[in-house]
Amino acid sequence: MKQQKKQQRRQKGTPFLALRIVLSVIILGYTLLGLAALIGGETALNASSAFYGASLTLDPQASHIIRILGAYMLGIALLALFAWNNPVKNRAIINCIIILLLIRVVEKLVFFKEVGQAFSISAVQLVSGAVLLLVLAALLFFLRPKE
After folding, report:
1. Are 24 and 77 in contact (CB under 8 A)?
2. Domain assignment of residue 5, yes or no
3. What is the pTM of this model?
4. Helix (H) or strand (E) holding 130
């Protein structure tokens, strides 16, 4: 009975407003980074510097890989948009985004030194990025629709 009352209170306002705000941040970030990566060149360099604090050297192979990553980022943004539109129906997408964000956190921590050296990213920037991803994952986890 308590669970039902909680659900009714949540439904009185805009349903899943906080969840949609978090998903909007993800959609915006992944869309901007994905487009920058697909455009490539100076745009990709500027975006990687602004979002990650990374210093990149682009050669034809790196440019191609960055464009591929951009396509995946746009795909994730599109999936997040589906989840934003109907969080209950697309709960599995939200769960997958949570897992993706957690994988990114683990990747940042496991390869901390290597990433920092390869891309001239400071420890503070790497830790800040990992914390941001962890916060987004936690917010999605706690705000997602319950089964």
Report:
1. no
2. no
3. 0.84
4. helix 123-143
Running DSSP on this structure, what letter comes out for residue 14?
Answer: S
The string of DSSP codes covering 54-89 is: ------HHHHHHHHHHHHHHHHHHHHHHHHHH-TTT
What was the pLDDT predicted at 5?
A: 54
Q: Tell me, rounded to whole angstroms, the distance of Cα 121 from its chain centroid.
A: 19
Phi and psi at 146, nearest 5°, equal -85, 155
* 66-83 pLDDT per residue, tens: 899 999 999 999 999 999
Task: Please indicate, yes or no, if residue 10 is contained in any of the structural domains.
Answer: no
Q: Which residues of the chain have pLDDT under 70?
A: 1-13
The one-letter code for the residue type at 73 is M
Residue 30 belongs to some domain of the structure: yes
Rounded CA-CA distance 16/13 in Å is 9
How many independent structural domains does the chain possess? 1
Q: Tokens standing for 71? A: 């396509």
pLDDT given for residue 7 in this prediction = 54
CA–CA dist 144, 26 (Å, integer) = 14
Q: What range defines the domain where residue 136 resides?
A: 16-142
